[in-house]
Amino acid sequence: MLLLLTLLFALFQGATSAHPIFDENGALDPRAQGVWYSREKGWILEIDERGVTRWQDTQAGCYASPAPDESTPMMGQVEYRLFRPSRNGQSIRLNYLPGDASAHFERLDALPQACGAEDLSSETAVFDVFTSVMASHYSFFQARGVNWDALVARARPQVHDGMGQAALWDVLAGLLEPLGDSHTKMVGLVNGEPRRAQAGLGTTLPMIREGMGEGAWLNGLVDQLFNDVLDPGAELIADRVIVGEITPDSGAPIGYIQIFTMGGFTHEHTPGTIEWSQAELAALSDMLDDALTRFADDQAIILDLSNNRGGYDAVTRAIAARFTDETFLGYRVSVPGAPEADQDYVITPYDGVRYTGPVYVMTSDVTVSGGEITTLMLRQRPNVILVGGTTRGAFSTPLAKPLPNGWYLELSNEVFEDSEGHVFEGRGIPPVLAFDIYPEDAPVAGHKAAIERVVAMIEAG
Which of 51, 247, 315, 364 can pair with 306 through a Cys bridge, CB separation 3.0 to 4.6 Å? Predict the structure, then answer.
């Protein structure tokens, strides 16, 4: 911890914008001390010498976030480390990591008396908290064709105190199912057993999981690339990235990069820490330096995101910066009803090795989250062509809302749009040229056929 704080202090001691909440000695910056409220998050934070205490402010009551357990997702285990104060001291913006999205908080005189005033752990109270949190913060009921109030009205008679954890779980999970949103889910322990309620995984992943199994499928895809598709010398890096070349009949090589996740490139640091963030971006930079130097004279690059499961947003922006020679607005993020949350993400060309020749981005309904954000940015570039299938349509960084009984609800509250205002939540980003990459009758061989089809397009000019 001391090393982390020392690094954090060194990074920001001279900055005029972002500052560590606690310095290298654990001392609190007095400008961050106080009680802070975020409308966009429904959070109240108490920041004092003891640390950061997070309260969940809902229409059904205010309660402290339960202590994490083995089922708690990562977003429930990390806390803000950086802040930017306003000039008058009445608001701050908080960040988990440098360059990460920030959240706006307003100063309160004191913690509201309602916080912690009542026990909200009963089945009816948890139901009320759950439904009110969704009503207040979920942004896509209309886009996904769901009448939330009607769903809640039908479910409410099923809920009563004493019904038990399993029955309550089934009711809440049933409310999430119609949304078909893979970024809106619930995880927790039910009678000591881990449970997960998540829908909207598209067609490919459920097909694979019900058939050959995801492990056999992924291994088959990787083996096929190395044995039948890529030239000798291809690399599998950190089990997350494949880099190689394809030499077609013309003899002019084509670069190939497949990225499975936007992160996970290193294992030296705890995920969510400053050190982790720096190591991830440094590892990505090294990989792209090597690959793009190798591909500098290639006739095109295939960037395969057809099996990308998302990850760290800063990684997506670093990738986009490698395929442009102009500064452009990559995307805009907003939260309905909270204009203070609006943020623009401008992409500046990377000051180093870049590739601005033809880039063919392969996508499918497996492509989600960070994979879609990368696609959203790159599709705006004149040298990029999207091919394959429509992406999943789940962009929002999940808002973590722990429930009073310890279950964790994550929901989509952010709206991502491109520079022209297009929003693809719920419908996905369509390709310019559509074809199935993972057909049901050949989910492994179909990937090879899809790459061969892209190679033929490149060769044809």
Answer: 364
Structure tokens at 347: 């992409």
Measure the CA–CA gap between 317 and 326, rounded to whole angstroms: 14
208-224 core/surface letters (b: 16 or more CB in 10 A; e: else):
beeeeeeeebeeebbeb
Mark 90-108 as b/e (b = at least 16 C-beta within 10 Å).
ebbbbbbbbebbbbbbeee
Res 5 pLDDT > 80: no
Residue type, 27: A
DSSP line for 151-210: HHHHHGGG--TTS-HHHHHHHHHHHHGGG--TT-EEEEEETTEEEEEE---TTHHHHHHH
pLDDT on residue 4: 34
Residue 311's φ and ψ, nearest 5 degrees, are 150, -135
Three-class SS state of 108 = strand
> How far, in Å, CA of 374 to CA of 352, rounded?
19
Q: Which residues pair with 355 in a beta bridge?
A: none
User: Domains in the chain and their CATH numbers?
Assistant: 2-108 (no CATH), 123-196 (no CATH), 204-393+428-460 (3.90.226.10)
Please tell me whether residue 128 adopts helix, strand or coil conformation: helix
Q: Taking 60 as the threshold, does the pLDDT of residue 400 lie above it? A: yes
CB atoms within 10 A of CB 20: 23
Tokens of 53: 């205490």
207: exposed, middle or buried (Cβ count in 10 Å: 0-12, 13-18, 19+): middle
Cα–Cα dist 35/426, whole Å: 36
Alpha carbons within 13 angstroms on the beta-carbon side of residue 61 total 20
User: In 81-164, where does DSSP find H-type helix?
Assistant: 123-137, 148-155
User: Which pLDDT score is estimated for 3?
Assistant: 33
